[in-house]
Amino acid sequence: MSIMIVLADKVRWLLENFKNEGLEIVSKEDAYDLKLLRATRSEESVAFDEYLKNENLYP
User: Fold this and answer.
1) Domain ranges of the chain
2) Which residues of 27-58 are buried (b: 16+ CB within 10 A; e: fewer)?
3) Which of 7, 38, 43, 45 is least surrounded, with the fewest CB atoms within 10 Å of its CB?
């Protein structure tokens, strides 16, 4: 059996286990948005301009 097939099977098994545990795989853009939201988490309300200021903190 090819090493690529074995590797692909292991990756599928790993992803299935993550799915069964409730883990959701998101896009880079979604992860980026979550980082921006986390940066303002302690604020009761945040002006949109302030929210966008944190945009430059993350690549």
Assistant:
1) 25-59
2) eeeeeeeeeeeebeeeeeebeeeeeeeeeeee
3) 45
Two tokens, residue 52: 């966008």
DSSP for 1-49 reads --HHHHHHHHHHHHHHHHHHTT-----HHHHHHHHHHHHTTT-SS--HH
| pLDDT given at position 26 | 75
Residue-wise pLDDT tens digits, 23-56? 776 788 888 888 888 877 776 776 778 778 777 7
